[in-house]
Amino acid sequence: ATPGRLDIVIFGGTGDLAWRKLLPALYMAHMHGRLPQSTRIIGIGREDWDRDAYLQFIQARSPGLIAPAAWSPTHWQRFLDCLDYVALDLAQAEGCGGLSQALSTDALRVFYLATAPALFAQICARLHADGLIDPQARVVVEKPLGTDLASAQAINAEIARHFREDQIYRIDHYLGKETVQNLMVLRFGNAIFEPLWRAPFIRSVQITVAESVGVGSRAGFYDHTGALRDMVQNHLLQLLCIVAMEPPISMDPDDVRDEKLKVLRSLRKMSPSDVKRDTVRGQYTAGVSEGAAVPGYLQEADVPAQSRTETFVALRAHIDNARWAQVPFFLRTGKRMQKRQSEIIIEFSEQPFSPFGQSPGQQANRLIITLQPEESIELAMMVKEPGSGMNLHPVRLSLDLQETSRQRRAEAYERLLLDVVKGRLTHFMRRDELEAAWRWIDPILAGWRELDEVPRGYPAGSWGPAASSALMAREEHGAWFEA
Ligand code: BG6
């Protein structure tokens, strides 16, 4: 149930995530009446500002990020009325300073930690010391939770000193995307797919999350992170889990998360020679992105000249369980790729026998689930080419998800923030799930360290390094499919 009063406290209130994503998402929820009347949003930042200065800061940034169709100056003004600011320099002050006074005594408290994870432990300890964590309070923690298994375990342990597991919302905004949630309905709400959703009827799965943007102004963070930690450890593995999990017995948080955990635990750990053979690291060089000349990663602001950080990863993964034995999962993500395109392509096996002989157009069926930029589900299948003879020809049964429903489609952050308010944990990661993901990632990081190779260059605006196509070319008829 939606509580009567709500205080949302955003640590990192002046940071990118807050003004780019969280405040626009909260504005949308507020405008559509999805938040309690008495909601207050308290930004916390290091800057020694008063409330007016904070409002000005937000005013100069967030409105431009709200979809024009949803923009209403009147609503924006009402939304700003909910906002407050508390200055807190964690390096200086003791406790939580003015936050105690700013909080209501009878409101549901949501603490959103949108700071560097290095600060999480300190923030939790201070909230605790000031007695601000009541049994209903919730804490939302942003990725990246750690840089490897050990650091993730340490962060989890610190947070767990002050919050119970059912108070902790580890956010992965991909789990809030409409199409990602829809994938569960596609799989578990339609009887026709489930019998075929396994080896040997599925031959391979390809998951691509391609971005056309570069590192932008985030090099300070990104250069220590790289694409494997920034995207694969969380977003791509979560997509893989939803594709590969067994049907959960209900949508209850633990029923869903138990099944995802099993998938993560079944991922085959890579040895250094597997890493050499089955992974590709790339880094973009200067090129043309969406019609404009753009610099290479090494020329971007704040990137060290010798940086070996990868901006692209492609890899071949295996899930060692009864459903997926022998079915390769190909994952690929990168910045400055040809276009923004996120998709999951399920490649079904070929017909065991064709009465039509060798028809040139014949190909195996594919199910193409596009997450971005448009949301769609397509089934590539064979039809007869009109005319004489029995020639086969691929066509697509296509479902445009925007067209199927006129209802407003909320952005991922809005949906997930409302889940936090409603106490729904299903689309958040549990502690063991996060750690299992790192358990699989760590050997890849170790393999790369051992190989000590410079990432392979790929021109901005391309589909990644040649080695990524070569990884696929090893497979029988292998290639990355075009959505
Ligand atoms: C974030 C990464 O988690 O996801 C960014 O830190 C990336 O580097 C972003 O750009 C992509 O999200 P989306 O929703 O735009 O696909």
From TrEMBL:
Q: Where does NADP(+) bind?
A: 46, 89-90, 143
Query: Which intervals hold domain Glucose-6-phosphate dehydrogenase NAD-binding?
Result: 9-182
The answer to whether keyword Oxidoreductase applies is yes
Q: Which SUPFAM superfamilies does the entry link to?
A: Glyceraldehyde-3-phosphate dehydrogenase-like, C-terminal domain, NAD(P)-binding Rossmann-fold domains
Molecular-function GO term, any one: NADP binding
- Ligand binding (substrate): 173, 177, 211, 230, 335
List the GO terms this entry assigns under cellular component, sorted alphabetically: cytosol
Instruction: Please describe what this protein does.
Output: Catalyzes the oxidation of glucose 6-phosphate to 6-phosphogluconolactone.
User: What is the official name of this protein in its record?
Assistant: Glucose-6-phosphate 1-dehydrogenase
